[in-house]
């Protein structure tokens, strides 16, 4: 059975899903990619918006979530921190 | 002989200092990302260890240029005391993290060690005993991490701390043989050099994964 993801891992998975869609994603696609319930995804979206890792935009009258520069930077740093945390077990 | 020994000490202390500060920096980066206290305390412990080697480096530099014998002994005693106090604190914080102690137990252990150290009549022996004891609790936690992760880097971290433990344990017997000091220094250098390599590899691995993802 797969271990439960930590908050940080979920944040990383969501941001990576947006990055893989070219930096912009529709809510339904994100729901599918993030593997979360609708309510949980919304609470994480609020967290990501508060931290300025993503921003909400409208494209052709449809809501999309876009990765900010901070979001890209998070993804960059997450990999380094993940390697380090795995090596030292912290 | 004396010059080459000093040079070797200088190399050991410099490598140990840079490795410690690099680990502390990565710990700090982890804390900025996660806001988890254990990352903060991990960074703090290695910052203190790095600082201890900096103090030792400075002390040795002062000794190199000191001609007055009285000043020489005074400088050595003060410098070595600060170095040994700082590195003991660093390893104790690391041991507290490894043991997952609650705040009260951690504070009790910390204060007991520091007070004992300051009031001890033989700081040197107590220093070697305390650091060895702390590392005896730290090493198993890194071994557990290696067992669960089974990666090369986690294995190297475990090995580096085994080397540090052996280096400090050998110094307990320094009064019986001066060779122990030289062997201990070599082992410590290897331990911290491995740690330095681990951090560089962490950064390189992260960069490689980035490039692979961007190509897709």
List the secondary-structure elements of chain B in sequence, H or E.
HHHHHHH
Order of helices and strands of chain A: HEHHEEH
Name the poorly predicted regions of chain A.
none
The secondary structure category of chain A is alpha+beta
Please work out how many helical segments of chain B DSSP would assign.
7
Shape of chain A: globular
Number of strands of chain A: 3
Give the proportion of residues in helices of chain A: 55-70%
Strand order, sheet with most strands of chain A: 1-3-2
Oligomer: heterodimer
Tell me the overall shape of chain B: globular
Q: Roughly what is the average pLDDT of chain A, rounded to an integer?
A: 89
The number of E-state strands of chain B comes to 0
Query: Number of helical runs of chain A?
Result: 4
Report on the structure:
- The complex is a heterodimer of chains A (90) and B (216).
- Chain A is an alpha+beta fold.
- Helices cover 61% and strands 16% of the residues of chain A.
- Chain A is built from four helices and three strands, in the order H-E-H-H-E-E-H.
- Chain A has helices spanning 7-20, 27-34, 38-50, 69-88, and strands at residues 24-25, 54-59, 62-67.
- In chain A, strand 2 (54-59) and strand 3 (62-67) form a beta hairpin.
- The longest helix of chain A is centred in the last third of the chain and has 20 residues, at 69-88.
- Chain A is globular, with a radius of gyration of 14 Å.
- The two termini of chain A are 23 Å apart.
- With 216 residues, chain B is mostly helical.
- Helices cover 90% and strands 0% of the residues of chain B.
- Chain B is built from seven helices and no strands.
- In chain B, helix 6 packs antiparallel against helix 7.
- The mean pLDDT of chain B is 86.
- Chains A and B meet through helix 4 of A and helix 1, helix 2, helix 5, helix 6 and helix 7 of B.
């Amino acid at each position: 059975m797969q271990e439960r993801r930590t908050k940080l891992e979920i944040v990383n998975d969501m941001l990576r899903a947006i990055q893989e869609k070219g930096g912009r994603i529709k809510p339904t696609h994100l729901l599918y990619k993030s593997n979360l319930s609708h309510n949980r995804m919304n609470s994480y979206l609020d967290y990501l918006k508060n931290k300025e890792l993503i921003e909400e935009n409208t494209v052709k009258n449809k809501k999309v979530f876009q990765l900010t520069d901070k979001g890209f930077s998070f993804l960059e740093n997450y990999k380094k921190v993940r390697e380090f945390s795995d090596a030292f077990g912290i | 002989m004396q010059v080459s020994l000093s040079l070797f000490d200088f190399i050991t202390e410099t490598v140990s200092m840079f490795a410690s500060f690099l680990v502390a920096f990565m710990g700090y980066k982890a804390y900025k990302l996660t806001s988890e206290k254990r990352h903060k305390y991990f960074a703090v412990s290695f910052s203190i260890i790095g600082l201890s080697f900096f103090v030792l480096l400075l002390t040795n530099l002062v000794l190199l240029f000191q001609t007055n014998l009285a000043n020489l002994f005074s400088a050595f005693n003060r410098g070595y005391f600060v170095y040994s106090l700082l590195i003991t604190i660093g390893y104790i914080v690391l041991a507290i993290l490894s043991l997952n102690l609650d705040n009260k137990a951690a504070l009790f252990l910390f204060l007991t060690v520091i007070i004992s150290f300051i009031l001890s009549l033989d700081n040197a022996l107590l220093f070697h005993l305390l650091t060895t004891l702390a590392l005896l609790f730290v090493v198993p936690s890194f071994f557990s991490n290696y067992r669960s992760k089974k990666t090369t880097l986690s294995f190297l971290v475990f090995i580096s701390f085994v080397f540090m433990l052996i280096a400090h344990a050998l110094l307990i017997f320094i009064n019986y043989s001066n060779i122990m000091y030289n062997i201990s220094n070599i082992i410590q250098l290897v331990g911290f050099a491995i740690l330095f390599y681990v951090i560089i590899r962490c950064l390189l691995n992260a960069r490689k994964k980035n490039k692979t993802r961007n190509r897709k």
